User: Which sequence fits this backbone?
């Protein structure tokens, strides 16, 4: 990563921290503590399961909300505050600006996820008093959640590069919802015929596949995640995000900023 | 400055008063009868739709539905039982959302099987639920054990033996299942078989409710044996003396007994005219069949709690 991208990324991270994004950790800590203490009293034999399911779902949803709501403002905010002109008047290229913003927000989300992950393990230790080897599958689920954030950040940035923040948020959120139905879309495409089949297949491959990145239930039951899936998902997210970022760069390069 | 302070004071007062009033009103609303009717409703009853709406977070949704099931069962149980009409839909949604949620099958089967007011009294649904569990978790012997237990409770010893046998063939299974398969096939209806099953359950479970249930059944088995033995002794007394004893003290003084016989909860047994041996505190012994006083009217409120 070149120095200019690194500088923009660091500033994006600082800005997110200054915007009190990491305050969500307090809400998360309260949620986990309440779950760890209360669930045993209101349910039967699912304390550990709830801590894992609730913890990982919260990590995922909090992160997605942050990725969308900060991601959509990454470009428009700089334009509104006219700071973008100062940045671009220096020897910084537009694609470097987009890449820096992407890495900055992705970095913020990784740090956020690490802290939340520690919280999940702390709540788990409180509930079950010891760790089993299968509990380390949670790390894989957290890794997949980070991969989700990478895709969402790239999408938010893409929409932010040409749309208003509200529309960018709507587009990003809907793609997240549709991405969770990617598997169903593929099944539908397989059952359809003619043009519908072609269109459905194209749509199924165009939307991000979030369903494959969700292994929360699996790891909550201590089931192992195949190594091959980890490799394939990593490669998929890298390639997909690169494609989305390229789109964002192309649009931003042509955008009239006057 | 003074004006601003005035506004702050008024706003704080309004805030506190409004919050307190809201809490009081909510408390009143909770006491209104429609609240109970609302609890009997499921806004979305399709597990498929719920799975779609969960956006991939169906694990957490299943946990929420399982907690709701437990709360619903516990609440209905506390209010004295009833139809438990939401029990099956809630269990169905829970297990469809997370087919690997083993406690939902284990406890759900018991909730559905137990006769009212202790449970829903729906053995067909109990079997359906646990059978679905065995299909979704074919390597978990506990579910075959639970299925066998349901069949045993229904006195369907052939299916109980089959379920024990299937469970005994799984990897990491308990040796007890093989023994039980044989025992069930041979002597499904004798007390020793029942004692073996409930003792094993009592020893192996870590759950308070299951332990209480097993302990209650073990006590009933003990009462069953005691009553049979005591009634035989009363019969012998009658043959020797020509009349039934009126109390156990009579039998003690004539040397038939060393002391007044006590039930497993240390309450004395009692004699009814005609030589019938009964317990003195039937409400403390749920599931009791033999040894109930002739004038006993079952309590409408469930008797089994983790404490007894």
Assistant:
């Amino acid at each position: 990563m070149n120095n200019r991208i690194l500088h923009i990324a660091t500033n994006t991270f600082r800005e997110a921290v200054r915007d009190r994004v990491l305050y969500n950790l307090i809400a998360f800590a309260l949620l986990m503590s309440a779950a760890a203490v209360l669930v045993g009293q209101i349910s039967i034999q699912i304390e550990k399961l709830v801590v894992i399911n609730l913890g990982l779902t919260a990590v995922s949803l909090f992160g997605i909300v942050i990725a969308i709501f900060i991601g959509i403002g990454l470009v428009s905010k700089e334009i509104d505050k006219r700071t973008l002109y100062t940045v671009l008047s220096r020897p910084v290229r537009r694609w470097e600006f987009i890449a820096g913003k992407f890495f900055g927000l992705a970095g913020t989300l990784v740090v956020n996820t690490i802290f939340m992950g520690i919280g999940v393990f702390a709540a788990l230790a409180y509930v079950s008093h010891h760790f089993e080897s299968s509990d380390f599958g949670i790390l894989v689920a957290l890794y997949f959640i980070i991969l989700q954030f990478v895709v969402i950040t790239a999408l938010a940035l893409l929409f932010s590069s040409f749309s208003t923040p509200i529309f960018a948020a709507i587009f990003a959120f809907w793609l997240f919802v549709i991405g969770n139905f990617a598997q169903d879309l593929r099944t539908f495409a397989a059952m359809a015929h003619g043009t519908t089949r072609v269109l459905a297949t194209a749509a199924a491959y165009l939307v991000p596949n979030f369903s494959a990145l969700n292994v929360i239930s699996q790891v909550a039951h201590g089931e192992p995640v195949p190594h091959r899936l980890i490799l394939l998902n990593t490669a998929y997210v890298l390639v997909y995000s690169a494609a989305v970022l390229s789109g964002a760069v192309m649009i931003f390069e042509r955008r009239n900023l006057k | 400055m003074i004006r601003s302070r005035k506004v702050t004071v008024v706003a704080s007062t309004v805030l506190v008063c409004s919050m307190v009033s809201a809490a009081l009103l909510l408390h009143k609303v909770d006491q209104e009868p429609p609240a109970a009717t609302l609890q009997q409703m499921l806004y979305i009853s399709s597990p498929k739709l719920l799975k779609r709406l969960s956006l991939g977070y169906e694990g957490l949704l299943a946990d929420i539905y399982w907690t709701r099931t437990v709360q619903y069962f516990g609440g209905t149980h506390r209010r004295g039982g009833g139809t438990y009409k939401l029990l099956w839909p809630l269990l169905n949604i829970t297990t469809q959302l997370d087919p690997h949620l083993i406690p939902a099958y284990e406890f759900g089967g018991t909730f559905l099987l137990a006769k009212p007011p202790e449970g829903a009294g729906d053995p067909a649904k109990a079997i359906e639920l646990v059978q679905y569990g065995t299909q979704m978790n074919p390597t978990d012997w506990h579910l075959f054990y639970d299925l066998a237990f349901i069949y045993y409770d229904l006195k369907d010893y052939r299916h109980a033996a089959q379920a024990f046998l299937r469970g005994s063939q799984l990897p990491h299974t308990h040796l007890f299942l093989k023994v039980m398969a044989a025992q069930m096939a041979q002597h499904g209806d004798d007390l020793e078989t029942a004692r073996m099953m409930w003792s094993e359950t009592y020893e192996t479970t870590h759950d308070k409710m299951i332990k209480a249930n097993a302990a209650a059944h073990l006590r009933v088995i003990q009462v069953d044996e005691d009553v049979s033995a005591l009634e035989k002794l009363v019969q012998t007394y009658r043959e020797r003396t020509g009349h039934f004893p009126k109390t156990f003290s009579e039998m003690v003084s004539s040397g038939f007994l060393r002391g007044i016989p006590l039930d497993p909860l240390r309450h004395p047994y009692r004699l009814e005219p005609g030589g019938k041996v009964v317990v003195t505190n039937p409400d403390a012994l749920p599931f009791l069949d033999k040894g109930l006083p002739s004038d006993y009217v079952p309590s409408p409120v469930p008797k089994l709690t983790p404490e007894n």
The interface with chain A takes residues 52, 55-60, 62-63, 66-67, 70-71, 98, 100-101, 103, 106-107, 207, 209 of chain B (CB under 8 Å). Residues 208-241 of chain B form the longest helix (34 residues). The mean pLDDT of chain B is 84. Residues 190-308 of chain B form one domain.
